[in-house]
Amino acid sequence: MLRRLYPPEVVEATIRSGYAFHALPAAWGEVLGRFDAEAMRSVRAPVLILNGEKDVVFRSDEADFARAHPHARVELIPRARHLANFDDPEAFTDAVRRFARQLPAAG
Q1: Which H or E run includes 98?
Q2: What is the pTM of this model?
């Protein structure tokens, strides 16, 4: 499926790095079954909620997640779908770097 949707240089690098496609059903079962907006209340670190603008599944709950955490920041990758890091790797990386730079230094 990824090969049909994304450029070969993105997909092939992901496959070569050992992405465990066979583990996805179990992983999603764990995430979707255990982590909801209420669980955000116990997260003590700053949170970046980074979604693709056109990710209709995960965007439906992003406001609930953001409201549940006092230091959550929502950012969208324009025109990107669920795999925003594949749709626009540069924008995704820039967003993560901006977030990381605003974190307080450890220690």
Answers
A1: helix 89-101
A2: 0.80
